[in-house]
Specification:
- There is one protein chain.
- The chain is an alpha/beta fold.
- Helix content is 38%, strand content 16%.
- It has 13 helices and 15 strands.
- A 7-stranded mixed beta sheet has the order 2-10-9-8-7-3-4, sandwiched between helices. A 4-stranded antiparallel beta sheet has the order 11-12-15-14.
- The longest helix has 22 residues.
Amino acid sequence: MFSRRTDWGHDVAPSHAGPRLRGAGDDPPADLTVANPTRLGFEAPGRLLRFLAEVDARHYSPCSAGVPQARAAVAEYHRGRGGLCEPDQVWLTASTSEAYAQLLAVTCDPGDAVLVPSPGYPLFDFLADVAGVHVERYGLEYDGTWFMPRSSVESAWQRCRGVGRRVGAVIAVAPSNPLGCYLRRDELDALRALCIDADITLVVDEVFADYPVMPASSYVPTAVDQAAGLTVVLSGLSKVAALPQLKLAWGVATGDDSRVQALMHRLTRVSDLFLSVATPVQLALPQILEHLPAVQAEIRQRLRANYRVAIDRMAHAPISVLPCEGGWSMLLRLPQVHDGLDRLAPTVNSDFAWATVLWQSAGVVVQPAALYGLAGPYVVVSLLTEPSRWQTGLDRLARLL
């Protein structure tokens, strides 16, 4: 009756892992997994909603790639971040997920592959399934900081070639969720060189790029530039303005003019099939983007303060706070084993076991890093967590261990 491509069983996405661990109806005071900014006490994002009431949206004129003033506002936003683009390089979608789906539709045929970073958010697996596309992972490695070996991308490419599978696109996330690492210049250049050689599209997800926590000096703030080849950069209001409920995202195509024009022609045709972005939010977008500084300053202050608190609280605990260059998530490395907790779990040597023990014995909810493809005793926590809950949760972890 149903397609095999959507036969996902009952696996839970990372966004729902906290509720699964703590059980129905339970709301412990030390839930460190909440990353929904509308639930975390921020004041500045809500002030932007007033601009929706100030636009005249009584009349509807469909614009496949988005209304001109909204596309111009996105181009101006990226120029303010050091990017180089024009409004005709921008198209609007209702979410970055929709932008990915449209990109898969125009860059891949069923059975083709897309290369994605690992560890990383599992969204790509589901989007690829819906598109009938194969996911091939290239590994990110850690040596005190996370980095992308060019050889790992080349190996993923060779695996596809070895089975006669065409690669349609390469995806990078900067900064990564949940690793928190930006792209370095040499990494971006390497990805572009590989994509140019194969004449395919590089997609760079920059939804968290405005939130540096502890960036390396060599990080690339944006891939919106005039480099050769074809690069598409994705972002949207969900993270940029902490307003996921407004449902507006965008992509910016950069590179060789002929390739950009060809891609935009196809994306516009695909967007015209759905016309999913509501007119009021498009009309309000220029004002929303103009008033971002207060929103992002409030969020960055919490991210950095929570990160400093974590470093301080874990200084004398057997828990390592991994470096976080940017984004809303942070990794904690827990002990491989902990004999004192044998009564709680026979072998506390995996992230799922640790997450269960921390919930049962300390009332602390964390996400197992295995949900993101990271093996070992790692857990993921949200740096957006309200400060009092954050300190309570970290103190409980330190006392338990």
